[in-house]
Amino acid sequence: MDDTVKQAMARWPQVPSVDGWLRLDQRGIWHLIDRNQPHFNEEQHGRGSPITNAQIIDFIGRNYEAERNEEGQPSGRWYWQNGPQRVFVSYEIAPLILRILQDKADPTIQRLMTHTGYLIEEIFEVSLSGTDHLLINTNLGPGLLHDLDLAQVDMQFDAADRLVSVELLGKRWAVR
Known about the structure:
globular; 6-stranded mixed beta sheet
């Protein structure tokens, strides 16, 4: 988290959090839902407008994290700490969108990265959602493998055409 954000939180600790203003789609694109616009209609405007400013996207990514309970365990809700205000994020499928990218130092090595630019160090589990999305539980939290990267995954199916395992970054995972 940015130092300026931590300072703002310390200076104004009682700023209420907000919900329903920021959305993450299944491709890792942030959307601002401008509920203050005149004639706002949830059905028409509820998906929001894509945020395209690279500096804002980077700022959101650096200050985006999982809410934790008193024991330090993730609660399942994710937020962007926007200065002193916590902005809870609505996400289509998962709070992290994962990409398979080449290592900058060694292009022969592939890495799994979050849409916010963080390297995944460990994969705990791979599963398939009911809508055929590949979900990956990682050390940074649950993520969805970006659909453009599915071609880089070796998938094995059983006789009933159910996905049973995937090879991801050189390791085979049983799919749950």
